[in-house]
Structure formats: C-alpha cells, structure tokens
Amino acid sequence: MPETAAAHAHHFDDLEQQHQASWLGMWVFLASEIMFFGGMFLGYTIYRTAYPQAFADASNHLDVWLGTVNTAVLICSSFTMALAVRAAQLGRPKPAILFLLLTIVLGAVFLAIKFTEYYAKFIEHLVPGGAFVYDDALAAAAEIFFSFYFAMTGMHALHMLIGVGLLATLIVKTARGRFSADYYTPVELIGLYWHFVDIVWIFLFPLLYLMGRHFG
Amino acid sequence: MNSRHIVSVGLYTAIFGALVLLTLATAGVAFVDLGGELNSIVALTIAVVKALLVILFFMHVRYSSRLTWVFAGAGFFWLLILLVLTMADPLSRDWLEAVIQ
Known about the structure:
heterodimer; A: 216 residues; Four Helix Bundle (Hemerythrin (Met), subunit A); B: 101 residues; 2 domains; 3 helices
C-alpha cells in the first residue's frame, strides 16, 4: 500500500498513472451506485405513474420545511468537502482537518433532522406495516409511497453514515501526516463519494417532498 | 490532468451560492400552482442543473480527462436507458387499449 508521498505500486509507471487508475476506479464504483439507486428511482417512477393521486396526497404528509433545511445542510457539507479536498491538494493539513470536521458535523446535523422526521412518521402511524393508519380511500397506494420514502431515504442515510465513518478515517490519516500535495488520493475519492450522495438527495428532495404540492 | 487542477475558493463559493439559491427556488416554486405537470418539470430541471453543478465543479469533472467524461457519462446514460425504456411500457398501455376499442 503506497502510504507515503513518493511511493507508487510497482505495476504503475508513476504516481500520476496510479492516481488516474484510482480516480477512474472510483467513477466505476459510482456508476454501480447509480445502478443501485437507479432501481429504486425506477420503482418510484412506475408506482407514481400508477397511483399519481395517492402519491401526491401521501407526499403532502412530509415536512417541506425540514426537507429544505436538510437539502441546504447537505449542500453546505458538499461545499466544505470541496474545500477539504482543495486544502489537501495544496498540502495544508490543518485547514483540511477543519473542513473534514465541518463536513462530519453537517452530515450529523442532516442525520439528526432525518431522525426527527422518521420519529414523527412513527408517531403518525405512517410507517408501512401492521401499524400503518391512513384514513382515506388512498391508504393502500399511500403505503407504497411511504415504503419508497423509507427505502430511498433509508439507503441514502446509510450512505451518509458510511461517509461519516470514511471522513473520520481521513481526519486520522491527515493528522498522522499521511497525505501531501503529491499524494491525497483517498481525500479526493471520498470527496467524490460524498458529492455523489449529495446528488442522490438533490433528486430525492423534489421527488418525495415537493412534487405532491401541486398536482395537475 | 484532473486532480492537479486547483479550483479557486471564489468559484467554489459561487457554485455553493447558486446551489443554495436553486434549492430555495425549487422549494418556493413548489407552492406556486403551475398546473401540476409543469411543477414537476420545473422541479426536475432544477434538480438536474444542481446535479450538473456538483458534478462539473465539486467533483472536478469539468477539469478531468476525456476518459472521466466517458466513465461518468456512461453511468448516467445507463440510468436514462433504464428509465426511458422501462417507462415506455406503462406509459403506452392506454394507447393500445384505444386502438383495440
């Protein structure tokens, strides 16, 4: 494992080539993530087409205010992540650690808000299953909406949790002086991952929270 | 090469500002009645613009090799195939019914 600035693995010509390989490998992984989330987005689209009225009605049970705040929080975290990568590129460990910490804090704020939203849904009996209560003729299809809501935001939240763990390892490694202006590949690749998770939310927010407000 | 390009703090801040404004815009416009269908189109268009800003600038794709463009593009192109070809079925079922009757 090449942990120092100058070293590269023997099957690469130089650091630049090694970096290119890691970078493209990360993009292949992100493409597989697109496939993973894509299946859920497709399922959502099919059922929304089948039950447009119920999906709009159920969507209005979500808190747009909290959803908007959380979108802003995630965008802030992407901004601090971008600045952390920039600090790493310039070989400045102190601002890199600061921005990585800020990113973790913002990620935690997002998850905390998400938790309070989930909690409210449990109180309101909007969690699919035996305790689901929806006094409307649309109940069955509304339950499908909430299944998608919990599956999609749940998988997104799991990705956030993993991201927070990865960011913590970056802070430790940065503090130990593992990175320099010549070698900062892990910071950059985990940055890509974090931004990708942000993009997933950028689509979840309008699809789940907003598109029921006005239904034609 | 891709990662060797260092983006200025000013540009990052501008992108960040644009993303926040677009978020407020999409939340605000959701409460304006554009007739439902147009509401969805506006919301998704804003989401695509936001995603592109993140991909091009925060993820450095704008400054990356052509090969990166191919890799990133392939992922999203695959998603397009998945959504368009699959939805072609449920969205066109009524057409056939109309023909039969």
